[in-house]
Write a structure and sequence with these properties.
The chain is of the alpha+beta class. The protein is built from 13 helices and 24 strands. Strands 1, 2, 4, 5, 6, 7 and 8 form a 7-stranded mixed beta sheet that branches. Strands 9, 17, 18, 19, 20, 21 and 24 form a 7-stranded mixed beta sheet that branches.
Length: 603
């Protein structure tokens, strides 16, 4: 089985940013002129009978050059290079108070009119022929406009049937913002990418206990152009290099175990320089899979938990990824608020209330690029609606101050915080600070005190949670759909553990197999017992919140990857966390049979 590289790579590139601004290049003028000329014509001439013309238009063009190399045990198994240009069109009809967006109709299935007026992911000419560019922009705008008009009519009808619905305007006004990145994209050396992938995957040779391994190196560059009728414009040039290696094996009882490692950088040169460090991490990956093969099985557990290392960043990203953004309730053709209404953020009604322990505060700041020498991958200058990134204080001394917003207002928030990351309000870089803390050793000793008080023989230490990729690898779509059901249940969705340990009352750690978190709630976050006095920086893939999971599914179904894809990375600077109680459940006991004959490399 071949493992495909994660799909969020292309989307992340649309938000990776340069450092300074400069004027557009001459070679860009044809594209920009075609976009602006067709926008001006559409705003004045595009109409159907008595229907109004668009009051807002935006165009996004992504020009992506991507090389993906897959290597197994030192030899290339697959490689490809693709160059593409995609156009996304957003058309709004009506006015800022009431337009075609934020409507869940029946005509479009589960997503209905939520995608109305937005056409994306369509092929766009690679050559700068002004006439051909205008033709493609014209056709896509025409189709998006017709969809927008239809949805606005259906939305008005739905509102007439709902008595006095409480709703905010559909689109706010903002000061226009222009930005052009200064970075210069370099051509991708495919042969060097391939040699690099082969060198890393060769580390996994000579380990017959590993049934499957795969190393994928992806190097992509993206030139993104955004223009809208409100005067926003940005031109971003970016690149991203990613290494992802996966390894799986089978324990003596037949249970499949797997682990993976990832490394990210703005370009592959940075990773080439760290090749020896990466090779050491591959050796550690082998050791980790071996440890999982012999790890103890825990059927269930309820009691104290210490979350440390990268698991701390994953914990806060999953907690805040589903709680940090303000999203308006959609109008629905059905009674109530439909599918998306079921997935509303419970923090929307908790402004001013305590949602974290009193000693913790949270800031989102995508303008900060590094912390203690670690580059923060959640940094950006401008969001996908053309709004500048801003620092936002979310929680102070445990109390919720505000939420992240896009240009879609809610009843409590009418201005954007520059947080639209591919369709959803999401954090960029989260900084967790504390007014009270313990040393790492004191925190572990406090864990043992809580374990003894709880009557358990052991506690749990989590050093890493699974990610979406490893969850899909281990449990397929069943695991992903289970995640979706958990999100719809309204609680906080934490992914299963990857690296977890039993800690006895003497402080000895024993590896255990992955555990699934059971019924984690907001009240448990408020009752965090203590945190460490050391804050560490990590980069994690942005979690699936209610809105981003739906958006990602919409992008997959509708081919709208450039507009509704998975939003990429989150930088997290946070301490280790001690919770008094969490509940877990072990995996099932029905496992595949062991191979009849030993691995051929065993001899």
């Amino acid at each position: 089985m071949k493992h495909k590289p994660k799909l969020f790579l292309l989307v992340v590139l649309t938000l990776a940013l340069g450092l300074q601004g400069q004027a557009p290049k001459d070679t860009d003028e044809v594209l920009i002129r075609a976009l602006k000329d067709e926008m001006e014509r559409s705003l004045t001439e595009l109409s159907i009978d008595d229907e109004p013309p668009p009051y807002f238009l935006s165009y996004t063009v992504d020009e992506v050059d991507m090389t993906v190399v897959q290597s197994i045990l030192g030899g290339s198994s697959n490689s490809n290079n693709t160059k593409s240009r995609n156009l996304s069109v957003n058309v709004r009809v009506g006015d800022r108070e009431l337009d075609n967006t934020n409507f869940e109709g029946s005509g479009g299935g589960m997503f209905g009119g939520l995608l109305s007026g937005l056409m994306g992911g369509g092929s766009f000419p690679l050559t700068d022929s002004y006439d051909e560019l205008r033709r493609v922009i014209w056709m896509n705008t025409d189709e998006a406009y017709k969809s927008a008009v239809s949805s606005l009519a259906a939305k008005k009808t739905a509102l007439e049937q709902q008595p006095n619905p409480e709703r905010a305007n559909d689109f706010n006004e903002e000061e226009p913002f222009e930005y052009v990145s200064k970075s210069e994209l370099e051509s991708i050396d495919i042969d060097r990418v391939m040699a690099f992938a082969n060198e890393l995957s060769a580390v996994l040779k000579g380990h017959p206990e590993l049934q499957q391994t795969s190393t994928t190196v992806s190097y992509a560059t993206n030139r993104r152009t955004y223009v809208d009728s409100d005067g926003n414009f940005h031109r971003l040039e970016s690149s991203l290099c990613t290494v992802m290696t996966q390894a799986s094996a089978q324990a003596d009882d037949g249970a499949m175990v797997n682990d993976n490692l990832t490394a990210y950088a703005q370009n592959c040169d940075e990773l080439y320089e760290d090749v020896e460090v990466l090779k050491q991490r591959h050796e550690e990956l082998v050791a980790s899979v071996r440890a999982l093969m012999s790890a103890e099985y825990v059927r269930s557990y309820t009691g104290p938990v210490l979350i440390t290392d990268v698991a701390t960043a994953e914990f806060f990203s999953q907690v805040l990824g589903t709680r940090a953004g303000a999203v308006p309730l959609p109008v629905s053709e059905s009674s109530g608020f439909g599918m998306m209404g079921m997935l509303q953020n419970p923090f929307m009604d908790k402004i001013g209330a305590r949602v974290f322990p009193r000693f913790l505060s949270v800031v989102n700041d995508p303008t900060i690029r590094e912390h203690d020498g670690v580059s923060l991958m959640g940094s950006y200058v401008v969001d996908s609606e053309g709004m500048p990134a801003r620092r936002t204080e979310l929680i102070e001394d445990g109390r919720l101050l505000t939420l992240l917003t896009t240009r879609a207002p809610t009843k409590d928030f009418d201005k954007s915080t520059g947080s639209n990351r591919m369709g959803s309000p999401l954090p960029g870089n989260i900084f967790i600070s504390s007014s009270e803390s313990m040393t790492e050793e004191e925190l572990k000793q406090e864990l043992l005190v809580l374990v003894e008080d709880s009557g358990n023989d052991f506690g749990i230490v989590i050093k890493r949670f699974s990610d979406i990729g490893s969850l899909a690898l281990s449990s397929g779509m069943e695991g992903v759909m289970g995640l979706m059901q958990s999100i719809m249940g309204g609680g906080i969705t934490l992914l299963p553990t990857m690296h977890a340990y039993k800690v006895d009352l003497e402080g000895n750690e024993v590896p255990i197999r992955p555990l699934s978190v059971v019924s984690f709630s907001d009240s448990q976050v408020k009752d965090i017992v203590a945190v460490s006095d050391t804050n560490r920086a990590y980069n994690v893939s942005t979690p699936f919140s209610s809105s981003t999971l739906m958006s990602a599914m919409a992008g997959s179904i509708g081919g709208l990857g450039g507009a509704f894809g998975t939003p990429g990375f989150l930088g997290v600077v946070a301490p280790s966390v001690l919770l008094e109680e969490m509940s877990f459940q072990g995996g099932g006991t029905g496992h595949p049979r062991l191979p009849i004959v030993a691995h051929p490399a065993s001899d």
